[in-house]
Amino acid sequence: MTTSSPRSRLIVVVAVCHLCGDPAPGDNRPPVILRPGLGGPRPVRLCARCRSIRPGRDRGELVPDDETWAFLERETTALGQDYESGRWLPWRDELHWAQNLRATTWTQSAVEHALRDAGPHVSTGRLVHVVEPLPGLLALVDDGDPALRTLRRFLDNLTAGPA
To answer: Hey, which end of the chain has fewer CB within 10 Å, N or C?
Structure first.
């Protein structure tokens, strides 16, 4: 007969950022409220970076554009890493489109126009997939907002080299 004694187990739960998945330190900041489509509102934690630059940073709850921004951040970072490593290189048309987009003042209508006028190589490429959420974010923030810094840096890096 095997006897087992109850043991106390210590379970450490590391809070992670709801938007990016990075560790969210257990600081004294109150969590933000997530209001999902189903179920009631619940508190979620954010890392310092997401808390400070997300589009809805002035609100105590997550807005849908915060999730869109998180998608834009992830996709821009992934494409930037693939570009730096040589796993992705833009088509010439994509590079030209990126140069034009970089030089444009980003407004919702200007970016929508750029997306509509993208040629066939651009429309089927990875770059346009990254930029597609941008017009929706520009309805909430202007083109100089810190929430768009990662995409701006990526386009600067992409268009800095020889064509």
So the answer is: N
82: left (phi over 0), alpha (psi -120 to 50) or beta: alpha
Which helix (DSSP H) or strand (DSSP E) does residue 33 occupy? Answer: strand 32-34
SS3 label, residue 56: coil
Whether 31 and 39 have beta carbons less than 8 Å apart is answered as no
pLDDT digits (tens, 9 = 90+) for 99-152: 999 999 999 999 999 999 998 889 999 999 999 999 999 999 998 999 999 999
What is the domain partition of the chain in residue ranges? 63-160
* Chain segment 73-102, per-residue pLDDT in tens: 999 999 999 999 999 999 999 999 999 999
- At residue 43, φ and ψ (nearest 5 deg) are -80, 140
Separation CA 68–CA 156 (nearest Å): 22
| DSSP-derived 3-state class of residue 26 | coil
pTM, entire model: 0.82
